[in-house]
User: What shape does this take?
Amino acid sequence: MPSSPRASVVIVARNEEANIGRAIRSVLDQDVDDIEIVVVDDNSDDDTGAAAASFAGVRVEENPGVGMADGLVHGLAVARSDSIVKVDADDWHLPGSIEKLLAPLEADPAVAVVGGSARSVDEAGRELDLHMSVPTSDHMALVAMVNCPIEHTACAFRRSAVLEVGGYRRVDGVDIIEDYDLWLRLLDAGMTFVGLTDLVAVHVISPTTVTNRRRQAGVDRGRSLRTDFRQRHAPTLCTYRRISELGSSVISWRDEPERSDRFAFVLIRLAHLSVGDREYRRAASVFAATVRCGPFSVARGVVRTALARRRRRQARGWMSASAVVEFVRGK
Assistant: This one.
């Protein structure tokens, strides 16, 4: 029986004939030996499967179900390695990304998930957003109370850990938030997460992607998952020490406004969750240092942002980083 490869790269693709080659090449160009690429063709109407199979060594599987969640279940079942790297069919990985993602998994058997940072672009390549990962499981859990803590196309994980919590699944029939649902269950189970600030992938957002076509269908269910997670963990996680540690990790990015601004919204929402806690004022001073404004402005920003985010949204459904900072600073 052949030995297991160092890692299995799993790509689920539907009608991605035009893009699948770019995703596969970004993996083949990595300076990493002994990896396999498994492409699960999700009932494509075009020649996605044939395009993927044209690359030597790429294994193409047919999705026995329908949709991303079913495709990932099958991909994990047929993968030969316990170390899984997830790549979206219309995205691509940057040079050195897979080595960076695998290193924490191989250095510590307790690590279950590694999340890197990713840049979002539109179909024309214009930059839309920057998803920054945070260092530890506690940080991930805090971010998860506000947003999905890991960009799905920029992660690696242990298959055994994922299967231990039930694997990928549809959430009330919604085939879009399978990643958020999985991260929350892994955090609930006390699994160890590691975050990398390194950019490892580019994520394409377009009106034709499955994610955008079904985004609205997943909004309500995602909100419900987030609310349930908050109820379970906010009392122990939304403390001055834990939130200020997250704030301190962002302060190190102060010379990189794009990174620090991206987290202004997360920090403000966490401040909002901790309103009423006697330590809120001390936590607010940490947030103030992060976004370079006074504690009063942060408190005001909580209210202003809550109202404004319903009106000003960007492609990913969140208020833009620049708009957050603008409102926090009271401009």
